[in-house]
C-alpha cells in the first residue's frame, strides 16, 4: 500500500509550478495559522535530556481530566497501535478519512465502509476494532457522542476496541471521549499540531487505560519526546486563557472561510474550526487552476473534493476570493 499523501508540501508545489516558495498562499493543511506563541527555549531545555517528572503529567490531567502518554506526534501512536493490539484482526476504517490509519492497519483484515452511522453499525459486529477520526479529516463529519459510546460498548463487550483520533477537536469542545478513556477498549488521540498550530514540534497524546499506555511507553525509545517538545507542550496545554482566545478566533475564521467559498459558488459540505470541505467533481481542475495562481489547497479524488485551511488575515482572504472567482470561471469555460 502506497504511503498516504499529505497537505503542506509547499516546496514540491513551488518546484512543480516554477514559482518561488514565498509567492504561495498555502491553505493545504488544517494547521492553525496562529501557532501558540512560545517564549524563547531556555538553554537548559536544549542542553539537558527530558525527565518524566517535569510536571507535564499534571498539566495534562488538569487540561483534560485524564492521564495520557506523551508521544512524538500522534502519528507515532497511529503507526504502533496495530502491534500493541494483537487480539485485533479485523478493523473497520470508514472512508474517506485520514489515510495514515488504513495504512497503519494494512497487514490486517481491513474492512472499509462509507463514513455514516448506518454503514458503521451494519459492519460493527464483523470487526475487532473501529478507527474513527472525529471530526473527520477531510470531510468534517461528526457523530453524536451517544453513538460513539454505543459503538465503544458494543466492541468492548467482546474484547474489541474503539480508536478515536480527535486531532481536529478543539480543547473543551463537545464530542470528546477522553473522559471515558479509563474504560477498557478505548483509545483517544490528541495532537498539538492543529488547534495549537505546533505541527513541527511533533507532540501528541494517547489517552487509554493504564495497561495500554504502559505498553506503548515501553515501545517508544527513551527520550522519544524531546525536552523542547515537553517544555513547549507544558506551556501550551496550561494556558487556558490563550485557548479561549484561540477558540473564538478559529470559530470566526472558519465561518468567514465558509462564507468566502459559498460566495464563490462552492457548496461547503463539511466544516471544522480548522478547515472547510468542498465535495465537487471539479476538484482536480479547480485545484490546478488555484495552483496556477500560487494558491495551494488539498485535493482528494475519492470522493473528489477540496479541503481549504484557514486564511490568516483579510489580505489572504481577499487573495483566496480573487483566485477562486478566476478558477471557477476558468474551469467552467474548460468544461464547455
Ligand atoms: C486526523 C489526523 N490525525 C493525526 C495527524 C498527525 O498528527 P501529529 O502531528 O500529531 O502526528 C494528522 C496530521 O495531519 C491528522 O490529520
Describe what you observe in this structure:
The chain has 336 residues and is of the alpha/beta class. It folds into two domains: 10-35 and 241-335, Aspartate Aminotransferase, domain 1; 43-238, Aspartate Aminotransferase, domain 2 (3-Layer(aba) Sandwich), CATH 3.40.640. It contains twelve helices and 13 strands. The protein has helices at residues 10-17, 43-47, 56-64, 74-84, 99-104, 117-123, 145-156, 210-219, 227-238, 240-263, 283-291, 314-335; strands at residues 25-26, 69-71, 90-92, 109-111, 129-133, 161-165, 186-191, 204-207, 270-271, 275-279, 295-296, 298-301, 304-309. It has a seven-stranded mixed beta sheet. A four-stranded antiparallel beta sheet has the order 9-10-13-12, with helices on one face. It has a two-stranded parallel ribbon with strand order 1-11. Helix 4 crosses helix 8 (210-219). The two termini are 37 Å apart. The mean pLDDT is 95. Bound molecules: pyridoxal-5'-phosphate. The site of pyridoxal-5'-phosphate (PLP) has 12 residues, from helix 4.
Amino acid at each position: 500500500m502506497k504511503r498516504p499523501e499529505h497537505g503542506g508540501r509547499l516546496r514540491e508545489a513551488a518546484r512543480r509550478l516554477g514559482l518561488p516558495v514565498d509567492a504561495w498562499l498555502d491553505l493545504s493543511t488544517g494547521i492553525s495559522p496562529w501557532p501558540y506563541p512560545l517564549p524563547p527555549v531556555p538553554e537548559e531545555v536544549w542542553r539537558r535530556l527530558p525527565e518524566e517528572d517535569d510536571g507535564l503529567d499534571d498539566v495534562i490531567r488538569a487540561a483534560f481530566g485524564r492521564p495520557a502518554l506523551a508521544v512524538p506526534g500522534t502519528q507515532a501512536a497511529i503507526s504502533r497501535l496495530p502491534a500493541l493490539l494483537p487480539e485485533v484482526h479485523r478493523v473497520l476504517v470508514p472512508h474517506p478519512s485520514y489515510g495514515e490509519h488504513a495504512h497503519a492497519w494494512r497487514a490486517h483484515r481491513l474492512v472499509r465502509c462509507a463514513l455514516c452511522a448506518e454503514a458503521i453499525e451494519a459492519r460493527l459486529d464483523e470487526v475487532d476494532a473501529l478507527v474513527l477520526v472525529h471530526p473527520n479529516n477531510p470531510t468534517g463529519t461528526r457523530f453524536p457522542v451517544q453513538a460513539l459510546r454505543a459503538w465503544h460498548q458494543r466492541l468492548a463487550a467482546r474484547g474489541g476496541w474503539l480508536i478515536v483520533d480527535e486531532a481536529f477537536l478543539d480543547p473543551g469542545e463537545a464530542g470528546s471521549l477522553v473522559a471515558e478513556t479509563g474504560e477498557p477498549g478505548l483509545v483517544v488521540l490528541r495532537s498539538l499540531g492543529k488547534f495549537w498550530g505546533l505541527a513541527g514540534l511533533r507532540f501528541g497524546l494517547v489517552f487509554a487505560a493504564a495497561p495500554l499506555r504502559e505498553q506503548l511507553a515501553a515501545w517508544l525509545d527513551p527520550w522519544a519526546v524531546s525536552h523542547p517538545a515537553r517544555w513547549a507542550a507544558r506551556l501550551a496545554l496550561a494556558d487556558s486563557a490563550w485557548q479561549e482566545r484561540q477558540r473564538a478566533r478559529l470559530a470566526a475564521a472558519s465561518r468567514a472561510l465558509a462564507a468566502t467559498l459559498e460566495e464563490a459558488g462552492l457548496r461547503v459540505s463539511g466544516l471544522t474550526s480548522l478547515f472547510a470541505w468542498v465535495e465537487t467533481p471539479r476538484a482536480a481542475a479547480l485545484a490546478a487552476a488555484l495552483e496556477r495562481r500560487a494558491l495551494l489547497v488539498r485535493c482528494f479524488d475519492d470522493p473528489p473534493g477540496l479541503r481549504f485551511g484557514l486564511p490568516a488575515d483579510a489580505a489572504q482572504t481577499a487573495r483566496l476570493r480573487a483566485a477562486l472567482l478566476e478558477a471557477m470561471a476558468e474551469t467552467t469555460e474548460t468544461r464547455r
